[in-house]
Design a protein that fits this description.
This protein has 77 residues and is mainly α. The chain is 58% helix and 10% strand. The chain is built from 4 helices and 3 strands. A 3-stranded antiparallel beta sheet has the order 1-3-2.
Length: 77
């Protein structure tokens, strides 16, 4: 399944700029050029959503941003 930035906003509760910043820090990139008529719009993977939700959970449980990033990156295969 592919998700737009709007889908990520809806599912995480974060704003677009916040999602862009978190994704950049985690090295998550949208795949562009796959939406007919809007080649500049990117689509994100389910893994991106999962990692954003894990990030949110970690932050809410008291992790710092940096610690949350390290934890998420350590869970990647």
């Amino acid at each position: 399944m592919s998700l737009t930035i709007e889908d990520l906003v809806e599912k995480t509760g974060y704003s677009k700029p916040t999602i862009y910043n978190i994704c950049a820090d985690l090295g998550i990139k949208a795949k562009k050029g796959v939406i007919p008529g809007n080649i500049g719009k990117g689509l994100y993977s389910d893994q991106a959503l999962d990692e954003l939700l894990i990030y949110k959970e970690l932050i809410e449980s008291g992790y710092s941003k940096e610690s949350a990033y390290v934890e998420i990156l350590s869970r990647r295969p």
